[in-house]
Specification:
about 45% strand, 8-stranded parallel beta sheet, 19 strands, 2 domains, globular
């Protein structure tokens, strides 16, 4: 059954579908599908509407093969409403992929990424673009990993519409590792939703899910994370943690962790916290010159972070060349203070000129955002 036939079979998303429990399905417009699907692959087992949509709409696939032992970097940008990218990463290769938003205004934008990671290969996937005016965006990732492979997935969402990111990951080889870290900075009526299903299918596989939300206005965020640990997956490890700060009474977050474990000798955990900035944290900010009146709404200066945080200059310099996530693309680093931590983002423009900008700041005890997995 091709993607178009499968979409017609499962129908449009509904709230009673567990894959779309928290998503505002009423925001999905009526779509016109082509008469036939060019891609004739079998999608009988695919149940996610967002994963099928680009293929059913005949998105032309862009296939990229990265050779064994290669070290490559790339920026990907879809030039139409629907995109389909296939990445084949060779053995022992290293790839850094930054995904750019399509800046053209559409009613809906949907992308699918099929990423196949061979033995002992390492892949970094990242997107943190300035918010664009696309009202509705779906982005689906299907990741398969061989033995010893590592995938680091990092996402920062700044709102401006309704977004849904879905990941189906299959850790098929012993020692495969997947690290997923997301951050949502939302306001107004923004809505961002994450749906993940991670399948541990081999011994000593490892997955980490770490999500943080900063919500104001009447914004909403949801995180639906499932982990399936199969038989014979000895020493498998999985953790899921979602931290949220609500900056207004009308903002909300929904979290649904699911663990399906079919083996005894494994370690699987999940956690969820939700709260607001306390008085001590606000006092810490005010003592460093940040306005007391709703400091989280203070816009970052165009002049750069050195004037915004002048007291941090001497501490930041050693971290500017940090390679926690990407060799040359965005770099995450933190400024450790006693019981406090800042997150700044260092990103590079398309022309290679380094652009430093504190998109946001947050205060958390001890644990910094996006701390690297060692």
């Amino acid at each position: 059954m091709d993607a178009l036939a499968r979409i017609k079979q499962i129908g449009m998303p509904r709230r009673n579908n567990e894959l779309w429990t928290f998503f505002p399905v009423a925001s999905i417009p009526t779509l016109e599908f082509p008469e036939e699907c060019v891609n004739t692959e079998n999608y009988d087992s695919e149940n996610d509407f967002a994963a099928l949509l680009p293929i059913a709409c005949n998105a032309r696939p862009m296939v990229k093969d990265i050779a064994e032992n290669a070290n490559e970097m790339a920026m990907l940008k879809c030039n139409s409403d629907f995109g389909h990218t296939v990445l084949n990463i060779g053995k022992n290769a290293t790839a850094s992929i930054e995904i750019l938003d399509n800046k053209v205004t559409h009613e809906i934008c949907a992308e699918r990424f099929d990423i196949h990671v061979a033995e002992n290969a390492t892949v970094h996937v990242f997107f943190a673009n300035p918010a664009d005016p696309v009202p509705l965006r779906f982005r689906h990732f299907r990741i398969t990993q061989a033995a010893g492979s590592k995938v680091y997935f990092s996402e920062i969402e700044q709102g401006n519409g309704t977004r849904r990111t879905s990941i189906d990951a299959f850790l098929e080889g012993p020692g495969a590792q997947l690290d997923v870290r997301t951050l949502n900075i939302l306001g107004g009526t923004d809505s961002v939703h994450h749906r993940l299903t991670i399948h541990h299918k081999a011994p000593e596989t490892r997955s980490v899910q770490f999500a943080r939300n900063l919500l104001s206005g009447s914004s909403r965020a949801s995180y639906d994370g499932s982990v399936v640990v199969g038989d014979h997956c000895t020493k498998a490890f999985s953790s899921q943690l979602v931290n949220t700060i609500l900056l207004s009474e009308d903002s909300s977050v929904s979290v649904k962790p699911v663990l399906k474990i079919y083996h005894d000798d494994v370690e699987c955990t999940h956690g969820n916290t939700c709260g607001e900035l306390d008085a001590d944290q606000l006092f810490y900010l005010v003592s460093r010159g940040i306005p007391k009146e709703k400091p989280w709404k203070t816009p970052p200066p165009k002049s750069g972070w050195s004037k915004w945080f002048p007291h941090c200059n001497s501490h930041c310099k050693p971290h500017c060349n940090s390679h926690h996530f990407f060799p040359t693309f965005p770099v995450f680093y933190s400024l450790r203070k006693p019981q406090m931590a800042f997150l700044h983002i260092v990103s590079f423009s398309l022309w290679g000129k380094m652009f430093l900008s504190p998109y946001f700041w947050l205060i958390f005890k001890k644990t910094p955002f996006f701390a690297p997995i060692l």
